[in-house]
Structure formats: C-alpha cells, structure tokens
Amino acid sequence: xxxxxxxxQKISTFMERWGILAVRVxxxxxxxxxxxxxxxxxxxxxxxxxxxxxWLPVFEGQTWVAIIGxxxxxxxxxxxxxxxxxxxxGLLALQMVGTFMPLLFLPEVTFQPGKxxxxxxxxxxxxxxxLMIISAALVVGGTVRGKIxxxxxxx
Length: 155
Prior knowledge:
By secondary structure, the protein is mainly alpha-helical. About 70% of the residues lie in helices and about 0% in strands. It has 7 helices and no strands.
C-alpha cells in the first residue's frame, strides 16, 4: 500500500508534467472559441464591447468587435505553439487592458447600483475573473526561458 507521501508525490509529478500544457491548450480553446464568436455576430459580450469602444478612433463599433475577436483568435492560436508564447502573452497583455475598461468607463453596467466596488454584476464578474487569466499567463510566461518545459510532456 502506498503512503500518503508517495501518493502526493505521484499527484504532484503528474501536475508538474501536464499543468503548463493544460493551461496553454485551455487558453487556445477559450480564446479561439470566444474570439471567433465576435466576427460571427453571436458573442454574448458584443453589447459590452460595443458600449466600451465608441471613443476608439478610425473604425465603427462593429468593426472593433470583429478586430477584437480576431485578436483573441490570434492569442489562442499563439498559446498552442511553444515558440509563440511570448507573442501570445504580448497580445494578451494588450487585450487585457481593453478588457478592464468597462469597470472604469461603464460602472453602471459592471456594478450593481450603489454597490461599487464590492457588488459586481454578471458582466463585472466576467471581467474580474480575467485576473485569473493574467495569473495563468504569468505562470506560462515563466516557462519561456526553459526553466519549466512548455513542450508536450514525455510519457
């Protein structure tokens, strides 16, 4: 019978071997999936994006929705390839700046009336959860110098 320490070691080894790859693939799936919804016109976030982008120059709101969507698709694709992680994180960093803008510019949409900053709406929660995406990206980014492998684990 295995001891607690042996079981714990096996679980920890499994997590170390597969964790970074799981985060990268998850990023790929989520960013490609949610990103492609925007240019297709079926994103649940479209109204929030449209309400956030009017101050941006050059394009109309719908064009910005499509641009942001394709940007997200690029983020997702880049996370799937270890040699593009730096690109993915750079694109993600720029995208995250825009993602948090509704908290500042649309508090009436992102917070319950009279409950700023402790009572976010569903939209506000959707935005605030991006702190976890940033944290996961920091972990993945910490692997680009080879201290932790970003390649597909060997069995």
